Amino acid sequence: MQIAIISDIQSNVYALQEVLKDIKLRNIEVVLNLGNMFYGPIEPRATYDLIRQNKFVNICGKEDRQILEASISQLENNHTLAYAYQDLKDEALYWIQDLQFEKIIGGTYYMINGTYFDDSQYLLEDVSSGEIKIRDDEKILELTDNIKAPFIFCGNSHLPRVQKINTGQLIINPGAVGLQAFKSENPVHHKIENNTPNASYCILKIKDTRYSIEHVRVAYDFEKAAKKAQENKREDWAYALRTGKTLNN
Asked: Is residue 248 part of a domain?
């Protein structure tokens, strides 16, 4: 059995198109989508249309929720949020509304974007000091509300990572399809950088009691995405899309 795990598309339909081509070339039929699909200055509605054309198992990420819950004040003060909200339109917003924030499949696979208690947190990484540090096993498990699933899939940090904790459970972050660098002020100022513009996803292969994990980097026409970001006055996104680094780092 092969499973493709994707996350953090961030409105980047151009990256998603190439990731899906790669998945189909490998004859993978099961795709798990961990959310954070539409926030971004690229192509939110086109991203929605492409997701709906494919039979993914989807959950809702923090930024999907924030689009749904946006107040008039937030839309007025955040041009990118307003762009995503207006571009998606009602059909897509109703679809997001029906998504769960977590999902467990057959007791074996647990899907979440952030943590059980806070969808803005990273499950594997602690950035409370401003630096990226890997959490200890007990804290990771606590942040899942002590889920028993053997395989735990998370997103949000955009950092491809696999960690086996002392319970024997495997936590996999597939990295981000759509954006390879950003700065955040939550919970404190920090930056995420992958130092490549290429899209990221992960393949989990299982046969009997054996498994293997492959993190995959996929090249795509990032210039199209960067130009769209510039059209929407997001030079920081354009730079990150081209380089995998944050602007003025």
From this structure: no
User: Residue 211's closest CA among 219, 201, 203?
Assistant: 203
Return the CATH number at 38: 3.60.21.10
Domain assignment present for residue 49? The answer is yes
Q: How far apart are CA 197 and CA 29, in angstroms?
A: 26
| pLDDT of 51 above 70 | yes
C-beta separation of 4 from 23 below 8 A: yes
What b-and-e string marks burial along 130-152, b requiring 16 or more CB atoms within 10 Å of the CB? eebeebeeeebbebbeebebebb
Taking each helix axis from N to C terminus, what angle separates 222-231 and 235-243, rounded to the nearest 10 degrees? 170
27-44 in b/e burial notation, b at 16+ Cβ within 10 A? ebebbbbbbbbbbbbbbb
- For the stretch 148-157, pLDDT in tens is 999 999 999 9
Q: Classify residue 156: in a domain, yes or no.
A: yes
Mean pLDDT of 167-187: 97
In a domain, 249, yes or no: no
Q: Which residues pair with 103 in a beta bridge?
A: 111
Please report which confidence band the pLDDT of residue 248 belongs to, taking 50, 70 and 90 as the band edges.
confident
- The domain in which residue 199 lies consists of 2-243
**Which pLDDT score is estimated for 182?**
98
* Contact of 200 with 192, CB cutoff 8 Å: no
Amino acid at 238: A
Neighbour count for residue 208 (Cβ, 10 Å): 5
